[in-house]
Amino acid sequence: MKLLHTADWHLGDRLGRIDRTDDLRRAVERVGAICEQEAVDVLLVAGDLFSELARPDALRETIRHWQDVFREFLEGGGTILTLTGNHDNENFCQTLVHAMSLAAPTVGKPGELIPPGRLYLATDPTFVKLADREHGTEVQFVLMPYPTPNRLLKGDAGQKYASPDEKNRLLVKAWSDALAALRAHPSYDPAAPSVLSAHVHMFGSTIGPSLFRLSAEEDVVVNGDDLAAQFDYVALGHIHKPQALTAPHVRYSGSIERMDLGEQADQKGVVLVDLGPGGLRGEPATLPLPATPVYEITVHDPGLDVPQLRADFPDAKTDLVNLHIHYTAGKDVLEDVLADLDAIFPRWYARDWQEAGALGDSIAGPEVGPARGFGETVRDYLQQELTNHAEAERDAIVALADELLKEFEN
């Protein structure tokens, strides 16, 4: 049985003012192509399929895109096993599971053999089996969503805690207990090929500059020291940096795209795994995925730096850029500088600027005019404040402000 391990798709996400839909859909299409090229049997997506920033209409289009990409894979007998992560909306995912159950029976009792050729989404700890098409061997899959109080702390007593630390301790214990309970189920065979897929932070992992939109204090960190001996492969999600942990078969695949500046140096990819009746056959292989460049640029002298940037970055139309701009009032026209940079880096996702007179005594020239007019100040403020809003909403508000400004100026 060939498995393709991936995670952290964050479909429908945004980076600042930039909608990442097209980037992420291209990455999903590459994953679909790999499934076909490598004759994959099971696609494992270890959580965070969707972005918490995605709107309902975007989620609908995401599901439609899945159908287009994976229709032939599923019709050919491939199976998609997924589970919820910390960025997946619990209500939406539960609704999706209920809707899927209307079309076909969902996963039944723990340890049941499930039919191939469809997508399964686990919103609670789940134990299922799939038949290996090559040998007929049953492979066991344990799916562990991200540990949240709603998923793991059942009843009023379980959800009463005095502090975040106490909540995390309860969740760590509940996660470990749920995993142990699935492995202790009468249908679970410790000698049979088995795979764990989990969306969780494990001790010993390297997270890079920071976690993705989550503080270290909020996160739930579990101990996975025993997992290498318990499972033939452990497919992890949540940490975006690809890495193996205690053994080559215990690993994070990483996200399928660079999601923010902290991932600018990451090589993205997916992991191909081959399981036989006796367990893992060879070491898992990482297959690289192209990723969108993400970086930051600081402009110290627009007159010198902008022409140089134009020469150095002739093909930056799809790059994601954080711009820091220093300019001198009376020498540089800020609106012109912003327009020039917008032409070089049309997908800048954030930008800030500072007038050189505020940086030090020797930077500004002797004749310094006003930094910005009233209209320019208002427009810049709105652009900054509306960075994370939908583009249509932002444009509508800025257009309304332009009308009001014209009335004011008249």
Question: How are the SSEs ordered, and which strands pair?
Answer:
Elements: E1 2-6, E2 14-15, E3 18-19, H1 21-37, E4 42-45, H2 56-75, E5 79-83, H3 90-103, E6 119-122, E7 126-131, E8 138-144, H4 149-152, H5 155-158, H6 164-183, E9 194-199, E10 201-202, E11 221-222, H7 227-230, E12 233-237, E13 243-244, E14 250-252, E15 269-276, E16 279-280, E17 285-288, E18 294-299, H8 302-312, E19 320-327, H9 334-344, E20 348-355, H10 374-385, H11 391-409
Parallel strand pairs: 1-4, 4-5, 5-6, 8-9, 9-12, 10-11, 12-14, 18-19, 19-20
Antiparallel strand pairs: 1-15, 2-3, 7-8, 13-14, 15-16, 15-17
Helix pairs in contact: 1-2, 8-9, 10-11
Q: What would you call the shape?
A: elongated
What's the story with the biggest beta sheet?
A: 7 strands, mixed
The H-level CATH homologous superfamily of the largest domain, spelled out, is Metallo-dependent phosphatases
What is the helix fraction of residues, given as a range? 25-40%
Mind telling me which CATH architecture of the largest domain this is? 4-Layer Sandwich
Radius of gyration: 25 Å
* SS class: alpha/beta
Number of domains: 2
CATH class of the largest domain: Alpha Beta
User: Which strand-content bin applies to the residues?
Assistant: 15-25%
State the oligomer: single chain
In DSSP terms (H or I, runs of 4 or more residues), the helix count works out at: 11
Strand count: 20
Straight-line distance between termini: 72 Å
Q: Point out poorly predicted stretches.
A: 360-371
pLDDT averaged residue by residue: 88
Classify the fold: give the CATH topology of the largest domain: Purple Acid Phosphatase, chain A, domain 2
